[in-house]
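User: I need a structural model of DNA primase from Anas platyrhynchos for a docking pre-check later this week. Nothing fancy, just the predicted structure tokens so I can convert them on my end. Input:
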Amino acid sequence: MLCFASAESRMLVPKQPGSMMDTFTPKSRSSRLEGSTAKNYFQLREFSFTLRDDVYVRFQSFGSPQELERELQKMNPYKIDIGAVYSHRPSQHNTVHLGAFQPVEKELVFDIDMTDYDDVRTCCSSAEICSKCWTLMTIAVRIIDRALVEDLGMKHRLWVYSGRRGVHCWVCDDAVRKWSPALRAAAVEYLTLVKGGAETVKKVNLSEPVHPFIRRSVNVVEKYFEEYALVGQDILGSPERWDKVLALVPEEHREQLQGDFPKKRDSVQRWELLKGRMERTRRAASAGKGTACYADWEIMLQYCFPRLDINVSKGVGHLLKSPFSVHPKTGRISVPLDLQRLDQFDPFAVPTISSLCRELDAAGDDGEQEDRGETEPKRRVRDYKRTSLAPYVRVFEQFLEEMERARRGERLQRSAMPGEATETVPATEQELPQPQAETALLLAPLPAAPGPAAQAAPWGAGPAPPVPPLWSPPRRFPSPLCPPSSPPQPCPFPLIPPLRLQAPQALPPLSRSAPWPQDSPPRCPPPLWGRPH
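Assistant: Understood. Predicted structure tokens for DNA primase:
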């Protein structure tokens, strides 16, 4: 799993060797993550450091979290990134034969950056953000997280504020970490609607039938669209702005709306006019008259739908900024997001390295009295609980606890299966995590050829052996990723039904003298099923 660490920033903090690192490096939590995987897992994980003057050091690996902490105190990096788990220790990659050093697995990550919305936001640009445009990040998290859980069957997601102008998502499901670049790219493609560069005017194009994922995304955007786009950004507030919006409307509706917009008072009224016209076309189309127009949906999605960087997600060897590290430009801590309180999250209120120093100094007198006879782990817990970082650490702890409960449940379920060993194996001696249920369909081998005993018994004589379903990567992500143990639900991918093998029906005894029935299709030749005696 991941090892999260925090580092001090030389730009913002006086030289205090090891002080902030000793206080805020979550060693115990790192150990909890590492304790649920193979004992050499941490040693195969790549870390990278960005040092003074943008010196970038890759392929760092460490024998233990304690060794990583000592190296952080020694090098004092401005930025820490986490990469993949490799076949060999990354620090020894130059000693491995060419082609043998390969990334084995990594969390599926998503990076959403506010600069990708510069063509549709009017309040800020480039690296600047404000409370108005931060709503775009809230919408992005709501849409992507719902799709990851309900459409793709993923469970363990950690959303993290980057510390400046975006958010990151780490999907830590065991089987997902083993996905190939093709599967990762397919997931990002499924979650992508806004396509085209700066020269493309209309970047979202919808047609019937509208995919259920798009409909659910529109429902999310609608909850925020008026407050964000119509009031906050005022996208229809002037002729220059509404001309940009009307360029996304079909020509047969554009001229009428251009004449009616000046008669309305504000962006809200103009939007209601446009939306009502589009809804009338859809009602007429459902009655068999005319063609449905989804221009209002296309506008909402182009202005508010998440914009993902496919290269960050599909590359197994790609590195991403570590949670709980300090952003070198802002000094803000990269903190986990509480999805239950996502709408209340304020990026300007997160702890900074300077504010944490002040909070510790304010509590220093009481701490000196309590330090006597106190162990190091207890002191660390007490220190961070006195700061504004405490609620964010609690979010991280809850994420770890949920993963630990899921892992224990899976181990118990496997141990209870017939033929499985029931002996408890220490966590540090286990093999790498086994595929979870939602992606077991992708990794299950095909059934082996039947042996002599299986050939002699007809299919109808007893229960047929389990036959795993087949799956191949389609253009859009497949529904078989949903756990087979979950309640039946309508397939959200009507154009790509899951392909499942069916056991053949029981065959009547074959006879050399008996002719084939005239009204039945040809069957498999007798040698395939065993000759009769």
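Before docking, keep this in mind: The longest strand covers residues 79-86.
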